[in-house]
Amino acid sequence: MALSFTAADLAAQFDLELRGDPAQSIDGVSTLARAGARQLAFLANPRYRSQLAHSGAGLVVMRADDAEGFAGNALIAKDPYVAFAKIAALFDTRPATTPGVHALAAVDDTATVSPDACIGPFVSIGPRARVDAGAVIGPGCVIGEDCAIGAGCELVANVTLVRRVRLGRRVLVHPGAVLGADGFGLAMEHGRWLKVPQLGGVVVGDDCEIGANTTIDRGALDDTVLEEDVRLDNQIQIGHNVRIGAHSAMAGCSAVAGSATIGRYCLIGGGAGILGHLDVCDRVVVTAMSLVTRSIREPGEYSSGTPLMDNRSWRKSAARFKQLDALARQAGARHKEPQ
After folding, report:
1. CA-based, 20 to 30 A from 159: which of 18, 43, 289, 306?
2. Does residue 296 share a domain with residue 179?
3. What is the tens place of the pLDDT at every residue in 269-309?
4. Catalytic position from the list 102, 174, 240, 335
């Protein structure tokens, strides 16, 4: 059944100021450029301000100053992006799940599965694992030994919890993610690698989200830990014994090497790397493609790398980079010459 709300309904439900027709019907959401007469859009980034005059949206969420002179229907919000996210969630409907264990699932005799959990086809649940009430385990997931899945969690499909993984409540794990695989622990003996046993686990706090094909290694001795409300994008690597503080977020293809600690409310850009055994304090932003090679002790925004330029210019700059040491020596020698 299609959902529909009036502008007045949305304003009242989310405590927003309405400017325009309270009877305007909304049955979906879209961008400013593509929205139709019965859809809601939002304006949060000033770069898209020029699209407002030509938008066909029936209702737009925006700040009060952006609404000045706007002839259409508007919902006024302090943070339009947050307001839009809350409204858009009304239209994110999913099929209802039916509690129970699918006939094609395999559950170990020592595992504990709540009767209120939903276990899909081709799921494997190993020894001493626990699945709490309201959890949804999608098709093809593997829950290894001594794993625990908290109430209201969802493992979408083909998720693997290898062993000793504990998920808090309402954790969302997207397809292909692997939690609890061996960390990269090796010691060299007589010219050959010796594998260091990985005896820890993975602990994920409440309300975390883990993207598709992301991997989180279990700890060597202590656990790898994600505190509450950590959000990981797709294809991220988290090494063994890493700790990520609450409310931090990491974009796709970023990586954290073993035993690094990331603080609370940190933002790590796409493709960024953090070397092992480093500490990053609270409220740090690491921009995309940066490499963190030392601990960060002060909040703020940090960047590294070379900005994009045409190839010919880059080659010239790369050649000059190789000459920096010689130039520095020459400058130092000149500085030491008697005046």
Report:
1. 289
2. yes
3. 999 999 999 999 999 999 999 999 999 999 999 999 888 89
4. 240
